Amino acid sequence: MQTSHSNANSSAGSHILQNIQGYVQVSNQHDVSHRRQQLVEDKVTIMQLPTEILVQIFLYCIPEDGDRTPAPHLDPMLLTAVCRRWRGIAVDMSSLWRKLRLEVGRGNWQHRAFCYDTYLKRSQGRQLSLTLECHNDDGKELRSLLQPYVNQISSLSFGLSFGASSCPVVAADFRGLESLVMYTTGSNSALTIAHSVVPSIAQLPPSMCTLKLTDLWFDLKMLSGFNPLAWVNLTNLEIVVDALNCFPCLLCLCPNLSSLTVIGMFSSVIETSEELPHSKLQFLRISGDLLLDWTGSLGLFDIITLPNLRAIETRDVGPWPHEAFKGFLARSQCPLESLIFGGGVMTTAQQLEEYRTTFPSLSLVTDPMRCSFYF
User: Fold this and answer.
1) How far apart are the first and last CA of the chain?
2) Which residues does 205 contact at the CB level (< 8 Å), separation at least 6?
3) CA 271, CA 263: separation in Å to the nearest integer?
4) What confidence score (pLDDT) does residue 1 get?
5) CA angle, residues 66, 71, 72, in degrees to nearest 5
6) What is the pLDDT of residues 12-34, one digit of tens each?
7) pLDDT at 10
């Protein structure tokens, strides 16, 4: 009898969940009224739902993507205020507490730190994805807060804004870190801030495979100063550079890259004739910021050899180096599947037709709307 009753509740609970989902997705007032009536007519009230159904509802309430702030009027904190039973279920669901956005340098830090720590403890040892917004250079309290969780943090986004000019954390301290994103939204010089964050990324943990450095401009001098093994385990890199002559250094620093996005000012050529092979790179994206009357050559495809390249996308690089690119393809013998020309890339109809003829299975796209500086 117990099992039969539980199954009946589960079936009814599933029906309610479907109605709730439909209620969220309705598109007009008539649908809203219809869904509301369905919920009212359900024989099992939401307070009687089996725990497994409530768990599904809670998960549905919180999107998988996006940051979470420990505010009492927002999920998942809001779920803990409904009743004692809901609080117990929500607090015990470690998956609800794995993502958190923290602000440093604003408001009452002691109160914030208590809320953040309570939130993080509920993750129960699971991997964490954190976004840190730093408004000053005092990182002592932040490091103290994060210390018990350094092995849990697998994804970290770090924003430097307003009063902050340096990064108060060091990537190597997060031994389980897999992905790091760094950016700035302040008014300070992006190149100046890049200099200040170099110590934070001078050595990455062995577990880390993705590094995205946006709004931070790096130059060849900074990159050349890194230990040759500092970024050896990276497989995905997005970086903004002040010149294309940083490209050879990036290939040497990251021998295991499979995806590389390079954004920068490409008004000067690469000053080397040394051939640069990279056996693992599969996806390459390049976005420049050229004046349309610049008639120089990138020089990039004259020196690189990428035998495993599958896709390339370019934006704002000026006149396309067609002959150099053909030489690169012949030299690399790569299995190229996709070639995308965005805005600010000047090609001719004859060049495009030559690619179609030479590579019949190639996905060739010319889209001037792909013109933003950042991908």
Assistant:
1) 59
2) 171, 172, 174, 175, 176, 177
3) 18
4) 40
5) 130
6) 445 554 554 454 444 445 554 55
7) 46
